[in-house]
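Reply to dn_fold:

You asked what the input looked like. This is it:
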Amino acid sequence: MTEPVAPLPPFTESIERVLVVVAHPDDAEYGTSAAVATWTASGVEVAYLLLTAGEAGMQRPPEEAGPLRADEQRDACAAVGVTRFSILGFPDGTLTYSLELREAIAREIRRFRPNVVVSGSGELVAPWGFDHADHRAAGLATIDAVRDADNRWVFPQLLHDGLGPWGATWLFVVGTGHPTHHVAVSEVGRNRAVASLAAHKAYLADLPWHPAPSEVVDGVLANGGRAAGVERAVVFDVHTLVADHVPASR
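and this is what came back:
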């Protein structure tokens, strides 16, 4: 019998700031936002970093879709207590793993100085099938940028811009087939997560085949709950990066 996925260990109670890095508006709303709602309710500051504006994801011109999706993402963030989000503006649909992308993500990590970075896995095959090319590029670049942000000799322009090294303590990876830990989600957290996905009204209206937000969120949380042995959960593959991070000494 498979052992249930463990809850986050006690030392993660010291988390103060979490940076969620995704490729598009709405990516965080497919499960991760339920954990975000749980964290913000306990006083954790969470920021979202979107690598593209999602301008190629709607049945309307990109110059119209991009600003619309940014507005909807702002509403989605508000539903789960996120007050800070940024869009880097890389091209939607053709996001490419590159040094430029790594540097841009590392810059934001140094600016926000999170304890935790949440990222996709970058794997070709996710639990739901072949993952989107943008998601794969975003996951790999973010995983590498977490290390880049803590190395003063990588991307020295960041030092010239007054952004010293920052080592996140943990990397939480979503969308893997081998999660190690879970965040249990209350009914309130579930409801806020549903509201965050539902905030993408115009985007979802362009996808008539898309299930209702409540159906999507409930399915993800139920799957996580079964893996964790609880009613509802978000699961992560958790990696400890810096055991004893002392910002002033780096």
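The chain has eight helices and ten strands.
Hope that clears it up.
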